[in-house]
Probable beta-carotene 15,15'-dioxygenase (Blastococcus aurantiacus), 357 residues
Amino acid sequence: MAGRCTTRADRAGARPGGARLDEPSAEHAGAPRDLIAVPAALATAVSTTGVAAVLAVEVLVPGGWGAAAWVPLVAGLLLGLPHGAVDHLLPSYRLHWRPVGLLAFAAGYAALAALAWAVFTAAPGPGLLVFVLVSAWHFGTGETAFADLRAGGVPVPRPIAASVLGALVLLVPLARGSSEVAAISAAVVPGWDGQLPGAVRVAVLAVVLPAAVLLAGVSAARRRWLEAGEVLLLLALVLVVPPAAAFGTWFGTWHAVRHVARVVAEDPAGAADLRAGRLAPSLRRFAVAAAAPTVAVLVVLTLLWSAADGWRGFVAAYLPLLAALTVPHVLVVAWLDRSAAQAGSRRMGTCGMPSST
Ligand SMILES: CC1=C(/C=C/C(C)=C/C=C/C(C)=C/C=C/C=C(C)/C=C/C=C(C)/C=C/C2=C(C)CCCC2(C)C)C(C)(C)CCC1
Ligand SMILES: [Fe+2]
């Protein structure tokens, strides 16, 4: 079959047991199943436990997070920082660049982030709007890609599921709003009170919440039990936990952890260990590689942060920096998804993967 484009029907016939085309399969492996299995299992355990723990505090401790709601936000934002810190290595893992190519790419990455930061600070209102929309897309596609890889397949574009998931974890907390969210937004965009118009909030909640319930139902109907359960868990997180704390928890213990699982599975130097079920050496290599870029960004953050404003000033300085890093980060991750899908398709001898939900 290699070397020609197969039809949708051809590929359906190639599936053992007549499985649906949009369900990942072991033969479609982009990052082979034996490499992603152990990191994905650990990332799943960490992310669901992290979210469940934050939810449990809100529900079981009298007063819930209350005045401490900023702690999961700040902790999550900091925990999530290293997840993009080896972005410059990802193309090189697949394309086998020499050190000079790697350096040039890292310099381009830093230059693009610096340009994005300058644009954001020059026009913070439109900048924040674009940042939020791009972030929602990145979070959603990151989630569907991880689920596909965890199930032994390749990242299949699933634009509807990705939009619902991204909106659930970012737009719902923003639409619910809180004094923290408003104060940070107002600090990021001078001259704005940080309040979204009531009609926008109602519209977001009225569309996204039923869509998330539907997505959980569709996943369950397709016997993707884990994905269905995860949507319900995230639904509980964004509805029960204070909005800023819910977002920080998602970012630090879910999105970032799952991305790191993908990254360690990409590292060719860790392949033998991962195949033997050993994760520690790969995690050590990730920590070493991520340390310098993470510290570099932390130094910039410290310089930008006006200490007098406490944690709100910290987050208000951090968001433009995250927005800036998001531009090259999103491009690298989108490239990674495409490259993994193409590698998987080549293995199957097909010309691209079908999309679904
Ligand atoms: C590699 C490299 C480096 C580094 C890098 C890094 C470290 C990265 C990272 C990256 C990252 C780390 C990314 C991230 C992303 C993120 C995101 C995407 C987020 C989002 C968020 C949001 C959207 C928010 C929202 C809000 C508001 C608006 C208000 C309030 C509330 C809240 C917070 C919710 C450097 C430059 C040194 C050099 C070159 C190379
Ligand atoms: Fe990310």
Observations:
- The pocket of fe (ii) ion (ligand 2) is lined by residues 83-84, 138, 142, 255, 259, 329 (CB under 6 Å).
- The chain has one domain: 20-338.
